[in-house]
Specification:
The protein is mainly alpha-helical and 112 residues long. The chain contains 5 helices and 4 strands.
Length: 112
């Protein structure tokens, strides 16, 4: 069961386009797991390297980086987002970078 949920989360995060971000809660909702934002974080930690899940595109609900400021993970997340053109101010992503899947993505790409 947990493995199936992880797969759903990974598939959903793989849909986030470069230069866009989503929150843990948004990913949980889109993966058909409402209220399971913490599970998203756990699943991303277990994502196989070969799958190349763009974990760095997933942020806290307030659009801040997922890791404590100044940590190696936070610096890596920041660098990866900046490389995709995402604007950060005070370790928060600009609202324009929030991923809003269109109807076609919702109907044909997301798998529940």
């Amino acid at each position: 069961m947990a493995a199936d949920n992880y797969q759903r989360i990974w598939r959903t995060v793989l849909l986030i386009p470069a230069g866009k971000v989503a929150s843990y809660g948004q990913i949980a909702d889109l993966a058909g797991l409402p209220g399971r934002a913490r599970l998203v974080g756990k699943a991303l930690g277990y994502a196989p390297q070969a799958l190349a899940v763009p974990w760095y595109r997933v942020l806290r609900s307030d659009r801040s980086l997922a890791f404590a400021t100044g940590t190696a993970n936070a610096l890596e997340q920041r660098q990866l987002l900046l490389a995709e053109g995402v604007i950060l101010r005070n370790n928060r992503v600009d609202k324009t970078a929030i991923w809003q899947p269109d109807l076609a993505e919702l109907l044909f790409k997301l798998q529940y």
